[in-house]
């Protein structure tokens, strides 16, 4: 029979070894790509509009109510706000977990930590470690030279609010390295359970209360960051899954 021919058996055995080798190589590349997934391009090709500070204007908008997940929120506008920024860290929120659950806050979709101006054009943003806490954004660097090149007034952590499903979906899809355009209202908001959160109204404050709370009226990703590591992540991930399934099929059928 054909499956008993020595050459055929040798070919099947070799194929099994190649699939195993492909799996381990793909897995190693997937781990490396995951580790480097958020590495910035150097330098970043920043959109020219990121060169300007956010625009903050007075508003006559009266407080208004919105509803999210069956909870009513009062939005108290402070200023009209227009921001172009490069996302350096992010944290998505779920109203069913942690403090958002305690506060019954289903309106805060995500925190987006962004830079603009000269920070968006630094020679290598990988010299900095940007991290998002539950409600904060931290930046660290290992050299005094890098710290002196960084302008802390051109970074902000933004609590982004919306009850609109299409905006929620878009904001949740944002990744590190995306360049975004966000317009809306700097605002305080509250709900009928006693929760209330304010907003910073300048870019120079620090510490508790320094974050901008923005009720989003429009949101767009104007440029995504495409890197070799992200391409490897997709290809190597698919390769590891596909090779593992083929190997398991061959082993299960007694061919390998």
Key attributes of the depicted protein:
256 residues; alpha+beta; OB fold (Dihydrolipoamide Acetyltransferase, E2P); five-stranded mixed barrel; two-stranded antiparallel sheet; 5 helices; 29% helix; globular
Question: Can you walk me through this structure?
Answer:
The structure is a single chain. This protein is of the alpha+beta class and 256 residues long. It folds into 2 domains: 178 residues, Beta Barrel (OB fold (Dihydrolipoamide Acetyltransferase, E2P)), CATH 2.40.50; 31 residues. Helices cover 29% and strands 32% of the residues. The protein has 5 helices and 10 strands, in the order αβββαβββαβαβββα. It has a 5-stranded mixed beta barrel with strand order 3-4-7-10-8. The protein has a two-stranded antiparallel sheet with strand order 5-6. A hairpin with a 4-residue loop joins strand 5 and strand 6. Helix 1 packs antiparallel against helix 5. It is globular, with a radius of gyration of 24 Å. The two termini are 17 Å apart. The mean pLDDT is 89.
Specify the biggest β-sheet.
5 strands, mixed, barrel
Q: How many individual domains?
A: 2
Shape: globular
- Beta percentage is 25-35%
Give the SSE string: HEEEHEEEHEHEEEH
Largest sheet, spatial ordering of strands: 3-4-7-10-8
> Care to count the β-strands?
10
Task: State the name of the first-level CATH class of the largest domain.
Answer: Mainly Beta
- The CATH architecture assignment of the largest domain turns out to be Beta Barrel
CA(first)-CA(last) distance: 17 Å
């Amino acid at each position: 029979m054909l499956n008993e021919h020595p050459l055929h058996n040798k070919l099947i055995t070799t194929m099994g070894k190649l699939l195993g080798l492909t799996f381990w190589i793909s897995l190693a590349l997937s781990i490396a790509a995951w580790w480097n997934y958020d590495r910035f391009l150097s330098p970043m090709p920043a959109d020219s509009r990121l060169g300007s500070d956010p625009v903050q204007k007075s508003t006559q908008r009266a407080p208004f109510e919105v509803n999210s997940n069956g909870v009513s929120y009062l939005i108290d506008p402070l200023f009209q706000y227009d921001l172009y920024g490069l996302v350096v860290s992010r944290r998505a929120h779920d109203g069913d977990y942690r403090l958002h659950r305690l506060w019954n806050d289903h309106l805060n979709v995500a925190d987006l930590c962004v830079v603009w101006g000269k920070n968006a054009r630094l020679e290598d943003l990988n010299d900095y470690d940007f991290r998002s806490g539950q409600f904060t954004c931290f930046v660290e660097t290992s050299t005094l030279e890098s710290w002196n090149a960084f302008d802390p007034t051109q970074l902000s952590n933004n609590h982004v609010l919306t009850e609109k499903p299409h905006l929620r979906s878009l904001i949740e899809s944002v990744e590190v390295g995306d360049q975004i355009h966000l317009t809306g209202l700097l605002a305080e908001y509250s709900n009928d359970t006693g929760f209330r959160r304010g907003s910073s109204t300048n870019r120079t404050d620090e510490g508790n209360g320094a974050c901008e709370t923005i009720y989003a009226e429009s949101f767009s990703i104007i440029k995504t960051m495409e890197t070799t590591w992200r391409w490897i992540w997709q290809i190597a991930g698919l390769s590891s899954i596909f090779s593992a399934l083929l190997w398991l099929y061959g082993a299960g059928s007694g061919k390998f």
